[in-house]
Amino acid sequence: MKREHFSGDPIPTKVRPYQRAAVIGAGAWGTALAATFARAGVDTRLWGRDRAVVDAINTASVNTHYLPDIPLPCTLVATDDLTEALKGAEVALIVVPSRSLRGVARQVAAQAPAGMTVAVCAKGIEAETGLLMAQVAREELGDRAIGCVSGPTFAAETALGHPTAATVAFPFDYADRLNPQQSPAVRLALSLTTESFRAYVSDDLVGVEIGGAVKNVIAIACGMMTGAGFAENTRAALITRGLDEMKALAETLGGRRETVTGLSGIGDLSLTCSSTTSRNMALGQQLGQGLARKACFEGRPVVVEGEVNARSVTDLARRLGVSMPICETVRAILHDGADLGVAFADLWARPLEAEPRGMDVAFDHPASDQEIATLAERIS
Ligand SMILES: NC(=O)C1=CN([C@@H]2O[C@H](COP(=O)(O)OP(=O)(O)OC[C@H]3O[C@@H](n4cnc5c(N)ncnc54)[C@H](OP(=O)(O)O)[C@@H]3O)[C@@H](O)[C@H]2O)C=CC1
Ligand SMILES: O=C(CO)COP(=O)(O)O
Known about the structure:
glycerol-3-phosphate dehydrogenase [NAD(P)+] activity; nucleotide-binding; binds 1,3-dihydroxyacetonephosphate; phospholipid metabolism; NAD binding; eight-stranded mixed sheet; single chain; alpha/beta; two-stranded antiparallel sheet; binds NADPH dihydro-nicotinamide-adenine-dinucleotide phosphate; Rossmann fold
């Protein structure tokens, strides 16, 4: 398929896009990314373990389970054979939930062509190790270019061709700095570029990945307070203070502050905290309305990354001495049996602090226990 060029794109024309890609994971986001590659003219194999999904993509160009009614490019080929998916691939995107990433990366490692670039697209932190997704992939896939794709991207909208932007992040080594046109980040960004999908390049892999992991936890908090009947003031406060938590964790791990203000940080945080299209926001909202966890999503199994990651994010933050009170509140409610109303009332009644962090002031909140209990009642 002919590759089109897009005016105004500052990526130098000398860049050689990838010719052959594998997308590992045929859920909503894997399918949307595979469709994006295919639309950009990249020869793409989408691997899924569910034979019915694979057959539907190959025969009817639709992922009946994860993106029903959204037409996919007819050039997109799906397979349930991992060897076939990876054969000749210059780049692979791994797009499975964070808790499955290590196992899938291990399977990929056994068959990956030498020199194949890998980008992880799961958003989270591994529970057992506290590692970011690209760090997990590195442990399994060894010495090759490993990065991520992240940003404010609801899969269905991307698959429908709505204008979407995301960040492609890889660490830039010496060779990449000398010749950025040949860097994996730039090549992958160009390979994903279509008239509606716009990719930005970053060398701050840690900063980008922390954004994706933390925003899901904050979205659960926003959903909880929305479900409990509160509105825009509360949501804006949670988004803004959530961004502060994201920034503190990213900077402590060596990420950059500016990255947090980009697509993978505030971009994804604001998207996910604004709509119940987000599974994280939707879970929070149902819990805030008083539903039991097992009744949420009408009992269907749904990937809600912020749920497991409330624990892994706060475990990591505690280890590093980073204060993340909103994430701690979500963790307490989801994992430690805290009452939702009491936990949020306690969050609001913490000692007052300075903004931004760093000024050495903290002073007691003047509310009485009775006043805090009254707020807790209102939230519940
Ligand atoms: N959906 C979105 O809008 C976006 C999602 N993401 C991130 O992408 C990741 C995946 O999410 P998403 O695609 O939405 O999830 P979905 O629930 O839509 O799909 C998950 C996919 O992963 C597969 N899978 C799960 N575990 C394994 C395993 N052990 N081995 C092989 N395949 C497995 C599932 O297969 P099966 O169907 O057989 O269970 C399914 O195809 C998450 O980290 C999410 O945060 C990022 C940006 C946007
Ligand atoms: O990461 C996403 C959008 O960028 C998808 O969000 P949810 O997982 O909450 O649906």
